[in-house]
Amino acid sequence: MIGVIDTGDDCAEWTFPAEPGAVRTARAVVRTRLRDWDLEPLGDIAALLVSELVTNALRHATGPIGVRLVRPDGPPRTLLVEVSDPLPDPPRERAAEPDDESGRGLRLVAVSSRAWGTRPGEAGKTVWFELAVPG
User: How far is CA 15 from the centre of its chain?
Assistant: First the structure.
């Protein structure tokens, strides 16, 4: 069961249980909210990067996973996306071998976003990234 924590004009936040279905649901709510905000051109890349970060959280942490979107309110027009989990250890980017089935998520975030990073939270960490709004 997902929980909607906060939805406002410029912010949307959800909490997902640490279950495999969280990835699909997170992609869906991100796409829907971006469509509602007239930011549909960012839907594919935002959903892909959220799904990578939620998958990482499922692999390495137990407990709820948070997803938060903040719509830009002025220049520079940048969408902020955050994925939080209860594990305090920051993720590490690594070089995946061609035959590896995992290990590309953070690299994908790094090359697909305007900026990205991590920050500690009260109970865990948040991985964030920014996407430039076209137009």
Answer: 12
pTM (predicted TM-score): 0.88
**Angle, helix 43-60 to helix 21-36, in steps of 10 degrees:** 150
What is the number of alpha carbons within 13 Å of residue 104 lying toward its C-beta?
Answer: 10
Between CA 12 and CA 4 the distance in angstroms is: 8
Rounded Cα gap, residues 17 and 21, in angstroms? 9
Residues 46, 79 contacting (CB under 8 angstroms): yes
Q: What is the pLDDT of residues 22-78, one digit of tens each?
A: 999 999 999 999 999 999 999 999 999 999 999 999 988 888 999 999 997 777 789
Structure-token pair, residue 83? 């994925």
The sign of the dihedral angle between the CA atoms of 24, 70, 60, 64 is negative
Decide if 66 contacts 17 (C-beta within 8 A): no
